[in-house]
Amino acid sequence: MGGNIRIGALISGGGTNLQAIIDACEDGRINGDMVFVGSDHPNVKGLERANKHHIPSFVVEYGPFVQSYRNNPDQFPLPDDFAYSEIVANQHLFHSDAIEERVRAFFYTRAAAEKKLLSKINSFAPVNLLVLAGFMRNLTPYFIDRFNTDPNNPRIMNIHPAILPSFPGVDGYGDTFRYGCKAGGCTVHFIDYGEDSGPIIGQRTFPILETDTLEDVKRKGLEQEWLLYPECIQNFAKGLIKTVKTTHRLANGEVYQRTVVKTAQER
Ligand code: GAR
């Protein structure tokens, strides 16, 4: 890729990762420009950060969609291009034995919120990369397929506060600490249809000492996140990242496939 890529960010809170990415764009460690910041909550510190750097921002709250569905599920306005059964077949967020009414309520309300998100995002087109920087909502196949128009070139990145696939979910550092791990870490990955799953782009680790508190673990982890995310984004901006499907045969003849990210070395 030549020149600067156009990056959009979604956040839910404080936005220290967002800040690290903005700083790296501004001082040339990322060949990119942050073109918008979207949040699912108003009045969060991350939005102030965007404002301070004159980056346009918007808010799409999910709560009103959930409320409107609860009030009148039969009249809930769905996006015209929403295909429920296809989305349920593709998603990896719910187990097949999950209560159907819960699954339906989740995907209906998410698709409606995501349609609004997409329309905001499209007003900043072209957007080369979407970074989830502490965005605490799982995106569904409805959103992912509309943003990732080329399935071989994913372009939605997430940062997670654990060494995936360990400790997915909302409290990666808490889970790491409570389990008594001797090391913690963070992961940047492309998102797929599951929760905190998808091909891993980069990971960083740190030691956890016996004297460390949960606060220490969070602080050490965030310090690594602020280094890792800009590095991964810069590799993407330079066109060094490729997602490849590989097939492997085990000694017992079993065959398995995996999708891995390969980062080329700079010449
Ligand atoms: C970060 O630790 C990030 O890894 C985590 O939220 C925090 C956001 O901090 N993200 C997730 O847990 C996503 N599942 P920040 O708003 O200061 O960047």
Written account of the structure:
The protein is of the alpha/beta class and 267 residues long. It has a single domain (5-266), classed as Formyl transferase, N-terminal domain (Rossmann fold), CATH 3.40.50.170. 36% of the residues lie in helices and 23% in strands. It contains eight helices and nine strands. The chain has helices at 16-26, 45-52, 63-71, 84-90, 100-122, 141-147, 172-179, 214-237, and strands at 5-11, 32-39, 57-59, 129-132, 156-160, 183-190, 200-207, 241-249, 255-263. The strands form two sheets. It has a seven-stranded mixed sheet with strand order 3-2-1-4-5-6-7, with helices on both faces. A two-stranded antiparallel ribbon has the order 8-9. A hairpin with a 5-residue loop joins strand 8 (241-249) and strand 9. Helix 1 (16-26) packs parallel to helix 8 (214-237) and helix 5 packs parallel to helix 6. It is globular, with a radius of gyration of 19 Å. The mean pLDDT is 96. Bound molecules: glycinamide ribonucleotide. Residues 11, 13-17, 46, 133-134, 136, 159-161, 172, 186, 196, 222, 225 line the site of glycinamide ribonucleotide (GAR).
- Identify low-pLDDT runs: none
Count of beta strands? 9
Remind me, CATH topology? Rossmann fold
What order do the strands of the largest sheet run in, or round the barrel if closed? 3-2-1-4-5-6-7
| CATH H-level superfamily title | Formyl transferase, N-terminal domain
Bound compounds, each kind once, are: glycinamide ribonucleotide
In one word, what is the shape?
Answer: globular
Taking all Cα atoms into account, the compactness measure Rg is 19 Å
* Count of helical regions: 8
Q: CATH top level?
A: Alpha Beta
Listing every helix as H and every strand as E from the N terminus to the C terminus, the arrangement reads EHEHEHHHEHEHEEHEE
Strand content: 15-25%
CATH 2nd-level architecture = 3-Layer(aba) Sandwich
